[in-house]
Amino acid sequence: MARLADYFVLVGYDPGKRGSGDGQGQILQRFPEKDWEDNPFPQGIELFCQPSGWQLFTERNPPTFFVAVLTDINSERHYCACFTFWEAVESAQPQSHPRNGDGGEEEEEPSSPVQPAQLFAPKSLVLVSRLDHAEVFRNSLGLIYTIYVDGLSVSLENVIGNLLTCTIPITGGAQRTISLGAGDRQVIQTPINDSLPVSSCSVALLFRQLGITNVLYLFCAALTEHKILFLSSSYQRLTDACRALLALMFPLKYSFTYVPILPAQLLEVLSTPTPFIIGVHSIFQSETQELLDVVIADLDGGTVNVPECVHISLLPEPLLQQTREALSMVLDPELEVADLAFPPSTISASSLKMQDKEIRAVFLRLFAQLLQGYRWCLHIIRIHPEPVIRFHKAAFLGQRGLTEDDFLTKVLEGMAFAGFVTERGAPYRSIDLFDELVAYEVKRMRAEEGNKQKILRHIKELAEKLYKNENPYPAVTMHKVQKPTEGCHLRLHQKPFPRLDEGTVQWIIDQATAKLQTAPPAVKAEKKCMVPSGPPIAAILERNGNALANSARRLEVVRNCISYVFENKMLEAKKLFPAVLRAMKGRAARHCLTQELNLHVQQNRAVLDHQQFDFIIRMMNCCLQDCTAMDEHGIAAALLPLVTAFCRKLSPGITQFAYSCVQEHVVWTNIQFWEAMFYCDVQNHIRALYLDSNEENHTDEESTEGPQEAKSALEIASEQLRLWPTMSREKQQELIQKEESTVFSQAIHYANRMSYLLLPLDTSKNRLLRSSGLGDVESVSNSFVTNSIAGSVAESYDTESGFEDAESSDVANYVVRFINRFVDKVCTESGVTNEHLKGLHVMIPDIVQMHIETLDAVHRESKRLPPIQKPKLLRPNLLVGEECVMEGLRVYLMPDGREEAAGGNIGGPPLLPAEGAIFLTTYRIIFKGTPTDPLVGEQVVIRSFPIASLTKEKKINIQAQVDQFIQEGLQLRSCTFQLLKIAFDEEVASDSAEIFRKHLHKLRYPQHVRGTFAFTVGQSPKQAMQPKAKEKNPSLRTLSKNLVKNAKKTIGRQYVTRKKYTPPAWEQRSSQHFPEDNEDEISVSEEMDRSTLTPTTTIKPSDKMTINHLVERACCRDYQRLGLGTLSSSLTRSKNEPFRISTVNRMYAICRSYPGLLIVPQSIQDNTIQRISRCYRQNRFPVVCWRNSRTKAVLLRSGGLHGKGVVGLFKSQNAPTAGPSPTDSTSLEQEKYLQAVINSMPHYADAGGRNTLSGFTSAHMSSSGLGHRARVITLSTPKCVSAKGRESPRGKWGSIRGSGRMSSYALNMEIGSRLAGKDLLGAQHNGSPAEASFLRQHRASLYIIGDKSQLKGVKPDPLQHWEVVPIEVFDVRQVKASFKKLMKACVPGCPSTDPSVAYLRSLEESEWLSQIHKILQISVLVVELLDTGSSVLVSLEDGWDITTQVVSLVQLLSDPYYRTLEGFRLLVEKEWLSFGHRFSHRGAQTLAGQSSGFAPIFLQFLDCVHQIHLQFPMEFEFSQYYLKFLSYHYISNRFRTFLLDSDYERIELGLLYEEKGERKSPQVCKSIWDYIDRLNKKAPVFFNYMYAPEDGEVLRPYSNISNLKVWDYYMEETLSEGPSYDWELAQGQPEHVEEADRQDTGAPQTKRKIIWPCYDNRGRVEPDAISKLLEELHNLEMELGQVPERWKDTWDKVKASQRSEARQEGSRTPSSLLMSSGLSHHRRSLGVYLQESGVGSTLNLSLDSDTSSTSTPSSGKAGGRRSTSTLYSQFQMSESENRSYEGSLYKKGAFMKPWKPRWFVLDKTKHQLRYYDSRMDTECKGVIDLAEVESITPGTPTMGAPKTVDEKAFFDLKTTKRVYNFCAQDVQLAQQWIDRIQSCLSDA
């Protein structure tokens, strides 16, 4: 029970204080005069009675009533009900009030016309109560006033006494009727539940006054602690508005300044800094203008004014919108139906009181939704003696997904919410509407979302409950209170309010109190119970899709990655890692990470190795970096136990824990985080404490319940609180003590934990790095730069304590203070005893100190760790004999300008940059590593090139990885079109990089050719410079020495005997001795001076053998093949041979760079040769190197002429000479020499010394028949115009002499532009001149192709039989320059912006293709001349570069033999090796050649061959791969073949014949040819399956630049295994790699293979069909246990059978098309195009654009090539094609006919058996349709059957029409036929 009113006060105007301006009030009387003990009298009541100030009025106002609210020091509210009326005042001052005394006033008549000014003073009756029963107060005070005004006969003292002693129940919905003893009766209803506010209609009124939006603004402002000021001219309305606002805030209670009516004297309160809700009369509106941070609500005007500087956080969406809609449904129900055509008539808003409750219901729902699940975030820290409860704000926000939401964050931080937790957090208390709503109705609210009817129904239900709470007995309205009569306040003669008798009132009060004390105390039976918690937030949040969206897959990835880490599958983990880091943005993934790691900790897997540690740390850091300082998702909390669990051993006894690497996150410096963590742990321990004790004394209740889910801490607490009163005192004490020590032990634990996370690894730094950025690089885990946060901790201290710390203060102090502050706060909150707290303060510095000491050791050790655990270096595979010079240096291979590997133009994962190591071996530079992109992490990247091919090495600086520093690197460029752009890892010291460069340099440029790999192979690198062991082949060595020694003096006679050459097998060759005097032998008859040759007088067999080798050299074999070679001048039959093999150079005396045996005209003597040679550069005089077997024209080569030689050769013979000077004699001899060559040609008949070549008919020349025949390129220049050339009667093919005026020939153009393919005038597109008529009838017999610059001023002479063709050629310098540009184009050093354009542009600038065009052009010209019967002498530069290119190409084009593997080898050995192309010099292979640089003359030749190969794919036995192989290895120095500059040098080193001697080390091939032979036997890599040569075909390729293709050798690379030209390396690899992978990956191994353009070697991974079939055949034969055939034999067999078939059938068949050259006669890159194995075999039918249909076939037949229609008709199915099985059988003829052998063909496709007269027959004689066959049975011989045949060889075929009798050669064949036919039948 409570007193209805505490005090009754009479307040009046105080006349004494009037002088000060405003008047003042004074308390006239108060009852009781003594303060109540429980409730002191509030001060300053007089101010509130007249809030706008005490003033006198000139007229009487009607009485007013309002309730002011005062808040006392204990924040108790006192309601002051003020009833004010006016009384006339006596004038104390005559000057202002002439009348005297009250009495006089009252006697006066108001009607008197001259009314003196009369003043009225206010007087207030005030009731002070702690209960808010405004109506009762109004009635009671009204009653007192009525008694006074109307003079009722009731004692005022009695009424007041009764009023003050009236007691009523506070709550419980009781109804109490009271009477104040004046015949009145009032019914007081108390609310059922006093926790719900009582609002009557105030809320509804507030909404009416301000509107929905404004009230929502005020509501949010109040909750987020803004200052709110109400203005109104009505005091009651101010009170109501304030009360309404508080009612809306339920269940939160407003705990700041709350003054619904603020008196004028206290206006300065408005400038207080704290939040408030205040009401002020609107007359003071002007005073409120200057308040800048106050939200002002004008109730009368309906406005809310929010100042600019105030930002009100509104409710989070969608709640705001939902609330608005609900309010509008309640307040304005017509809105919904406003647009309806027939609006329902019944709709109207509820009564005001009901509406009020409905609005409150909306807000109740709002709070239930806002705070749903709040009980799951309560931490109960103590249960006894008092429950201590904390709210985990961060977790709540995080789980609700509202961390970003301003409104909720501010509300939770506010005082109101703190009060809410204290009040409602307790687990055991009475509950009210809100508790039920938030626990049970949240699900329903969620379900009803969006359904307006249901929402409205819910609101009405709640409103009913609220209404019922305020008005439990709505029916009773038995009020009976007297009211004063109307207008009574205007009565003139009203007596003043009488002075009451204090004694009477006091007596009444005392009586009542005495009675109360004797009465038994009314105990309010509180219904306490356990507060329901409601569903946990997670369950509520399911609909919040985004939280869980697509997370399943991500979580899978996170789990996999973690399990890979723990299973040590680092490659797999690395692949998933980026995905995991990306996933960490999502909360689910972070939770998943903590759970997974936790599982591993539980499985005792916390000790990790360095790499695992690294991964886990990186994941933790990534996980933490997205956490805010408040750790709303509990990630840091979950990781906290883990970071102190995971560790790695640094060294014995020193362990580094994960916490030292995850310190730089703000969360650790946030004291709230630590508090929340602490409370959470304390709660768990306390829960455990009670759970254990429960289990020990297992009460009966529990066992009956059966299995129950784990109780939450709150449930346990409420149970304990229920039991508390029943426990004994000791038991209570014991529990209190247990709880306290639990908290205390946790505090110690946390002090430790905090020191772990706050002390940096390197505590020695005195001053902390204040930023939490990258700290000092030394304090690192091996993956992260870890910098402590103690710095930021310190800042937070300093700012709080208000002083900056002294410079010297160190980390330890900061941490100690931080922990102290934490401990103080949590221990006082959770009631730890003071002694314990002091003990803690003593402990903390020790804890920190100890930890610092352990950290020092860890820091020391961690510095010794290698920086990041990098992938282990992969060892490259080495060749036999190849050795590592320098172990791998860790480097990054950076992408260069080629895009494929970096995932550029074709997309895909970037293979580069890759990290690995660079190795230097004696042979190669090798990079081997793995891509840094983890998605291709298990691929291996290899890039290598032979050291000998290095062309440029420069230092560069690059940034290897985005997050790393600039590093030094190298860029190494190789002429095998490879570029290594490497950045050294930080761990590689710069001096190791220097050593690497020095070694590289030394190996690249050895002192002598003996230092190259081809020589040192197999030796240890140390002995690289020693000569080889002596005992190998002494005779050989002495021979070669002597050869060289005596070369100058000796021109002796050698006896060399050889049989007609057939190259013997190697084994025989070494032991062969040749018989001396056979008839058909080649014999050299010159005597030889033996004494000069060897020290002994007899030749040892080995020496003799060596001389034989000279004959066995390539040239010699070739001369014999060409029929040029006889070595004898003695035998008569050789006299008629035009040429002989001269041994004049056998000692290399005449010309060092020529071979020992040379072909010269028969008639020229050796001594003449010696003289002639002086006219030529390098003594390279003209020698024959090839003869056309048809026209007998010969091709000669020589160096260019010396200047004087030129003049001598061409000076007019008629000019007078001064005598036989030496020059004359040589020039005559030169002429004689050339004449001898001309005479050797068979059609040289002396028709005026001219050969008219009549065979070359004009028919060939007609322009319609212009074929490749006429593809003669005119090399003419307008500069050297010769009149004679034009006018001479028998113009010697003047076009080549180049008279530029012949415009009809399209010759007037610069030679350069001609050769660059810039055709002018009418030149045809395919590079032949417009008209063919320039090929004159008269041809010179010998054309000398010379350098234009040398032949300046040479006049042609009509009398000579030869003719000079001056052409312009490029020199070696230009080749070098061009090659450099080509390399930069194909392998750019750095990426360009527009690769395709840049590539084409730089390709054009390199002019490489124009050089190739030029070489081809000259070669085709020479071929033309030779083919028409003229001989040609190519005499350019020194005769060893371009000359060699041209001569070799001419032979290749003219002679099919050179297009075979054997022939090409011979060609290269003869023209390039024997004739002294300077390989070592041009390849810059030694130190001496370093300055001259690399000139790829041979590569250029191979490129030309490649161009021809592309145009004539069927003419070459070798594949494109063969050409690439040569171009790679001629510079690789792996073989000795291409070392040194001439045969002479090779002999000097003892190289030339050693290969043919005994071979000690079979595994090391010294000659590239041996290697190719061997490889060719094993696999068809070098073989071209398209090879189907035409007999004797001369090729004439197009040479226009538009017809040339860039060789793919320059462009392609294979990163999986490096260059594929070292076959052994490439072969062994794949299996090996797979095994390595298997150990490492736990992922399922798939058989799928993705072929990546720059990564895999397609020829190997996906071989072409034929290779595949050959390989399968081979494997099958192996399985069957047969000795497998060589692939070549198999191929030849298949080919032969195809050919024979083709012949029998007469018509060509597609199956034989490939092999038997079924393409049209002239097969220039037309049709079936099977490219080399390295590229894959695509059959593409391409008709090249440049083949014009009119072109004549090369052999001069009139018919053009087959038209395309015939080409395709070959692919029609003709009967003859499908032969499933065929063979010869005897067939019995029809009745009475004999047995005859027939050729049978079984055709599965057409399902028939055909027979022909013979195998060659093309016409089918009969067909047996297999569909008609009924059976096939063994037969018996009948009459006339072949006698010799076994009878089991007969069989019969029964068809529906007749029976066929057959007989095969033998039983097996018969059986085969039967089987075949049976299988055909069964197939059908």
List the helices and strands and how they pair.
Elements: E1 2-3, E2 7-14, E3 24-31, H1 45-49, E4 64-71, E5 77-88, H2 101-107, E6 120-129, H3 134-150, H4 156-165, E7 167-168, E8 175-178, E9 186-189, H5 202-210, H6 212-223, E10 227-232, H7 235-249, E11 257-259, E12 276-281, E13 294-298, E14 303-305, H8 319-331, H9 334-337, H10 352-370, E15 378-382, E16 388-391, H11 393-400, H12 406-413, H13 415-425, E17 428-429, H14 433-448, H15 452-470, H16 502-518, E18 529-530, H17 537-541, H18 545-548, H19 551-566, H20 570-583, H21 587-602, E19 607-608, H22 610-625, H23 635-643, E20 647-651, E21 654-657, H24 671-696, H25 700-705, H26 713-723, H27 729-758, H28 790-801, H29 811-829, H30 834-864, E22 884-893, E23 914-921, E24 924-931, E25 941-946, E26 950-959, E27 966-974, E28 978-984, H31 990-1004, H32 1013-1016, H33 1034-1046, E29 1057-1058, H34 1066-1071, E30 1082-1083, H35 1090-1093, H36 1101-1112, H37 1114-1122, E31 1139-1142, E32 1158-1161, H38 1166-1172, E33 1183-1187, E34 1194-1198, H39 1203-1210, H40 1222-1240, H41 1258-1261, H42 1283-1287, H43 1294-1297, H44 1311-1315, E35 1342-1347, E36 1362-1367, ...
Parallel strand pairs: 10-12, 10-13, 11-12, 19-20, 34-37, 35-36, 35-37
Antiparallel strand pairs: 1-7, 2-3, 2-6, 4-5, 5-6, 8-9, 13-14, 15-16, 17-18, 20-21, 22-23, 22-28, 23-24, 24-25, 26-27, 27-28, 29-30, 31-32, 33-34, 38-39, 38-44, 39-40, 40-41, 42-43, 43-44
Helix pairs in contact: 3-4, 4-16, 5-6, 5-7, 5-10, 8-10, 10-14, 10-15, 19-20, 19-21, 21-23, 24-27, 27-29, 27-30, 28-29, 29-30, 37-49, 39-40, 45-46, 47-48, 47-51, 48-49, 48-51, 51-52
